[in-house]
Amino acid sequence: MPSYPLQFFSMPEGSVSDWDYFWYQIPYGAPGILTFLVGIFLSYFAFQKFRESKENRLFHVNLAITFVSFGFVGLVLSLRAWIQNVELLVFWNDILYFFVPSLAPAAFYLVYHMTGKKSKLLLYYSYLCWLTCFLIYFGIIIGKGFETDVTVFPFGKYPKGSSFIRPWGIVAPIGYFLLIVPAFVKHYSQIRANYHPSLFHGVNLLFLLICSNAPSILGYKLYPGGFFLFIPMLLVAYGVFRSDFFDVNQLLFQKNGMFYFLFGLLSFVLIFISFGVSFGLSPTSYESSNWYPWGLPPVVSVFAAIFLSIIVAGANPSARLNQLCAFALILTGFYVMQSVPLKLNLPYVVQLRVSQLVFVPFAFAPSIMVRLVFEAVSRKNPKGLKVIDFLCLVAALLAPSPWLFVGYYEYPWSRVHHGGPVEILVGFNGLLALIFILFSLFRHKEIVKGASRWIIGSFVLSATLLLFALFPSHGFPFFPLSDFQFVPAIILGYAVLRHGALSLEGRTIQLSQRLANLGLVTIGIAGILYFPLIRDHYGIGESAFHLMMLVLPLILFNYLVVYIMSRPLAEELDISYFLLDLEKQKADEEREKALIAQDKAEEAMEESEKLLLNILPTKVAQELKLKGSVTPARFESVTVLFTDFKGFTRVAEGMEEQELVQELDACFTQFDEIILRNNLEKLKTIGDSYMCAGGLPVQNHTNAIDACLAALEIQSFMNQLKEIKTALNLPFWELRLGIHTGPVVAGVVGRFKFAYDIWGDTVNTASRMESGGESGKINVSSETYSLVKYFFVTEYRGKIYGKNKGELDMYFVHRLRPRYSQDPDGKAPNQLFRDLYARIHSGSKIRWKNQPE
């Protein structure tokens, strides 16, 4: 067996070119970019909260300013690490520092708000900080922001601030130690009661690190701790979400916040690859023969993983399974990406830095894969996952360090980094995750079914290929099988799509798909036209390889921007077509009612009338006002809906009284909104049970359909609530729903506290439908089934015993039939459904050609 000696990398002595300096300094600038991305990400959501919320708007605008400012501090620190030319460095510091000074006054206001607005001195001091900010702005505008006198550190060059900047560098630290620290100490108990501890510690650490930068601004060579700003920024980000400043589920899933953040970062990576290939690869890069055929497997793996991540995430951006799968695929692509430069004739420092950068996100692959597997089998994340998360975080923080790789081997197929302690940690963590998954699932074989097996198999195959990559990194001349990651990536993408994550159909979605395909064709044609131009510099094979690495990132970027970024908006727009029609109809009806009520009502009775209408249906209230009483009425066809929480007593025993009431109120408030949208009347709540009915006090022909639509919405809401509680490891309630249609007698009982109620055997039967159902299911009687069977997918359960009722035919309603649904889950009706609904509502008889399945 031939011997391949270990070769070591060392930094050159003396001056280097600006380009080489950039590559040598990348690890020092990377944390600043992370700080910038986190700051911009949080500032976006803070600004959204400012627009949506009418309360504490000043707090949210200062929060957004603080995040933006800290983000630009990170960007400034990155440029100080990467730019060697002092004049150019001072120029960019002057420009970018325009966004930095506002962090001081905004941060002082945040502390003033966190302490309950009890220290007016903090508020006044924020005004003083604004004065120093305006002084900085004036200095920057006249071109006297920073001086060319710089303090040189191994991690960058720090320019000395001018007389316009120095007051800010003095006032902010003094205010922190003399005002903020005492305020935090004095109001510590109040802050801990209202905010998550990580937010408190993150804010303090941010101030300390910013204060440690002040000496370098003043011209003193003291270690600037701002280099580590990304650590408290991550703490603040975690504390912000845990302190409920933002609705985490709404921002990250319903509004696809994490989806946009991930693919925004991916867009940046794709553009960087394309530009890097265009400007960074010369004909000499292909002098080595390693690019063919050894370079083809990693290139295919990178672009296959990224393309599949786009398809999977775009199929359903709000689905947790899809997002986790997309994360896993992107991390896989990032890992294989570092193998491509190793096949080319590039300086080793470039190859090393690319590998270090991609290992930062790839370090989290074990954590993401474990979550993906357990999500696929519908089980809670195990408690032991925190150990893997911690090891992932440690590996990610150490990835840019010299301990990731300690030299390299020169094999016939390419260079291969010699793994250091950090790579061994990543490999150990991946093996630990693999053993953890196999052990956990071996104990519960019954839950591994269908597409879940493919997902687990892809993870096992991917982990095996990655473990085999450890051999060449430690001196064994064995080709790294990890270059063939496109195989498990294809299996994983197929498995998740097969799991049920299919695309929604709609007019705007189809338009976005066509635009994306048009972009693919356009870029492909441009690449073909570009091919003859590069043949003068490269051979045919090198030209094709070069063109593939240049054009494929642009194609994927186009597909991502046009198809993925517009897809969530397209879905919302398609659903909005239906919702707008309903809202318009309801708005017209409400307008007519308001005009009638305004003509008939007297000014002195307005408040009492509003109160009466809030208790009783409109028609009943009008009768009560005119006659002083309500005549009981019999309705021959009324649909009654009952809900009841399963396990309510068990979960409630572990909750505080106030928390219990708040949870019930939140659920019932959502139920109220749902039944109002579906033309039903709320009758009453009894403990944790909820009762409503359709077809009264105004009779209609659609009350059974209305009740089933409302039940589907309630079911969807409870499923979303369950997902959130499960992700937060909190107890949750499961709901049974029962529906029955039949005759009732309705009337008003009570003399001083009115209540509209119904009586009859129909009510008892509906209650039996609820008690005889199953958690998370909609259980209906044969009478209701006969009225809705043509619109909904149902399942006959057989005859089920009902207390005091004997054997009753019962059915499950699962969803709208695909023919009448505009989404794959069968929740939102389409235009065909609305047309038929309108005809039934007007009293038309529909003659069905076929019996339901």
From TrEMBL:
Domain Guanylate cyclase: 639-770
Signal peptide region: none
Record's keyword terms, sorted: Coiled coil, Lyase, Membrane, Nucleotide-binding, Transmembrane, Transmembrane helix
Main location: membrane
SUPFAM superfamilies: Nucleotide cyclase
Subcellular location: Membrane
GO MF, any single term: adenylate cyclase activity
GO BP field: cyclic nucleotide biosynthetic process; intracellular signal transduction
Pfam family, one: Guanylate_cyc
GO cellular component, one term: membrane
Residues spanning the membrane: 28-47, 59-83, 95-112, 124-145, 165-185, 197-220, 226-245, 257-279, 291-312, 324-342, 354-374, 386-404, 424-442, 454-472, 484-503, 515-533, 545-565
Family annotation (InterPro entries): A/G_cyclase, A/G_cyclase_CS, Cyclic_nucleotide_synthase, Nucleotide_cyclase
Coiled coil ranges: 579-611
Classification via Gene3D superfamilies: Nucleotide cyclase
PANTHER family in UniProt: GUANYLATE CYCLASE, GUANYLYL CYCLASE
UniProt similarity note: Belongs to the adenylyl cyclase class-4/guanylyl cyclase family.
Full protein name: Adenylate/guanylate cyclase domain-containing protein
Organism: Leptospira ilyithenensis
